[in-house]
């Protein structure tokens, strides 16, 4: 949720990664996130989320992941609207984590991921490594208090998926990436990377020889 003067709106851009970048290891306290979608249609969604410090090892079933969060978990409920031009309505409120855990345990459509947070240049980035049915998906996001313009895009970003609804968590909850990962990689190889060009000037970090595009 934005803490600027824009109220319940988020401003973010999202990117597909081929793998977890080395910079993710600079986060000393990655988070484990387990979230369930109670409703999702036409870009609108209602989700509940538990998050807390990621354990060193974990089972990938939803129930085991919730249990691994223990007493340090934080619970939230969020309502979202459709995204347009890197902007999306998002209202988030705190909930009792015990209640959220019980809701997740009774919900079919669950997404789990380990989240790393890093600071690159002038922006804070998150890197999400998805678990269970959405493995081996890795996404990165950058969020600001206003539109994300004139962005310096790190070399680990293979392509932008800010406007690709397939990479929204509510879609992944119903259509896990693992089932269509190979199809997407073939699509990316065929079409090549794309980046949103309506949000100012994109700057790209130089890629080293041999790195994925």
Describe this structure in words.
This protein has 213 residues and is α+β, with helices and mostly antiparallel strands. The protein has one domain (9-204): Hypothetical Protein Pfu-838710-001 (Beta Barrel). It has four helices and eleven strands. It has an eight-stranded antiparallel barrel with strand order 1-5-4-3-2-6-7-8. Strands 9-11 form a two-stranded parallel sheet. Strand 6 (110-120) and strand 7 form a beta hairpin. The radius of gyration is 17 Å and the shape is globular. The two termini are 31 Å apart.
Distance between the termini: 31 Å
**Strand order within the widest sheet?**
1-5-4-3-2-6-7-8
Radius of gyration: 17 Å
What would the principal axes of the Cα set say about the shape? globular
Please give the number of β-strands.
11
The CATH superfamily title:
Hypothetical Protein Pfu-838710-001
Query: Which percent range fits the helix content?
Result: 10-25%
Strand content: 35-45%
CATH C-level class: Mainly Beta
- The fold-level CATH name is Hypothetical Protein Pfu-838710-001
């Amino acid at each position: 949720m934005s803490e600027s003067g824009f109220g319940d709106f988020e401003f973010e851009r999202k990117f597909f990664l081929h793998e977890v970048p080395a910079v993710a290891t600079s986060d000393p306290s990655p988070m484990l996130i387990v979230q369930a979608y109670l409703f999702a249609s036409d870009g609108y969604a209602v989700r509940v989320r538990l998050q807390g410090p990621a354990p060193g090892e974990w089972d990938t079933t939803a129930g085991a992941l919730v249990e691994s969060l223990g007493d340090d978990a934080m619970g939230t409920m969020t309502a979202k609207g459709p995204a347009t031009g890197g902007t999306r309505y998002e209202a988030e409120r705190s909930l009792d984590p015990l209640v959220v855990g019980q809701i997740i345990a009774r919900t079919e459509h669950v997404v789990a991921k380990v989240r790393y947070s890093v600071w690159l240049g002038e922006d804070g980035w998150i890197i999400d490594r998805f678990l269970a049915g959405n493995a081996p998906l890795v996404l990165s996001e950058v969020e600001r208090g206003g539109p994300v313009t004139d962005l310096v895009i790190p070399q680990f970003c293979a392509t932008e998926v800010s406007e690709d609804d397939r990479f929204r968590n509510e879609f992944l909850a119903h259509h896990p990436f693992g089932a269509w990962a190979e199809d997407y990689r073939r699509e990316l190889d065929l079409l090549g990377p794309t980046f949103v060009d309506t949000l100012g000037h994109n700057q790209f970090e130089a890629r080293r020889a041999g790195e994925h595009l």
